[in-house]
Amino acid sequence: MLYITGTPIGNLEDMSYRAVKTLNEVDEILCEDTRTTKKLTNHFDITTPLRSYHDFNKEEVTEDIVEKIRAGKHFALVTDAGMPVISDPGFELVSRLQDENLPYIVIPAASAFTMGLVASGIASYEFTYFGFLPKSSSKRQEKLSEIMHHNMTSVLYESPHRMKALLEDISKIDDERIVSISREITKKFEQHYRTTATDLLSKLDKEIPLKGEFVVVISAYEEEAVQFTGSAKEHVSSLIADGMKPKDAIKLVAELRGLKKQEVYDEFHK
Fold first, then answer.
1. Domain at 21, CATH number
2. Which candidate, 59, 48, 54, places its Cα nearest to that of 32?
3. pLDDT tens, 77-100?
4. Could you tell me the CATH number of the domain that includes residue 217?
């Protein structure tokens, strides 16, 4: 059996009884960083052996795990914080167990992005989780443009040293867009702010220290809020100027204006 076991995202008191019991009873704990997980197991007097499972060894380790589960061994898969598999390795192992018809169980815990969404005060009926933005400048701008023109609430992670640049880029595209940022969730200095990106910029390094991982929630794109009244061609051009790919801009303009993609394509390429 594999137990996909959620752990606290910051406050160790959030560890569930079921998770502690499971980590005590399995034969081995698979973890991203044994040093991080050791702090958790030491806190709860768990003596189960730890084994590294990360992006650099997952292929070779997966084969061994599958063979041992088939032979009757029990494993727990944990991440450094929160739910395994989300923005972390693990889906490959789950997929392999499905293919082999081998058992697994999910033991729940919090994820930072769901906590940030709940605390944001932004509509969460429909949302998309984007994880971390690409590191490459061009790909980062392209992805952010997609997010800023997305018709659902968007949730992403950002590191402290990139937060200022992110809020500046959001402000350039739409300085009135409502954004929420959360940091140090479940910890002593937990913070949540919801306002415009421009206003958030003025609070960085003052009211909001640039420390700890940030959860960023961006309200959905609404055409009415942008009040673009030009032609379809001009509308496409403005989206491209914001960093969107031409084909994506054409598709979005067609959806927003109730036109066929071919109509917008033809007008844009006149």
1. 3.40.1010.10
2. 54
3. 999 999 999 988 899 999 999 999
4. 3.30.950.10
- The yes-or-no verdict on residue 226 having pLDDT over 50 is no
Is residue 65 within 8 A of residue 75, CB to CB? The reply is yes
User: Residue 138 corresponds to which amino acid?
Assistant: S
**Two structure tokens written together for 185:** 């969730």
Which residue among 67, 92, 107 closes a domain? 107
Domain count, the chain: 3
Its pTM stands at 0.81
Domain that holds residue 260: 228-268
What does DSSP say about strands 153-158 and 127-132: parallel, antiparallel, or unpaired?
parallel
Give the distance between the most distant pair of CA atoms in the chain. 70
Q: Tokens at residue 234, please?
A: 């001009």
pLDDT on residue 185: 96
Model confidence at 223: pLDDT above 70: no
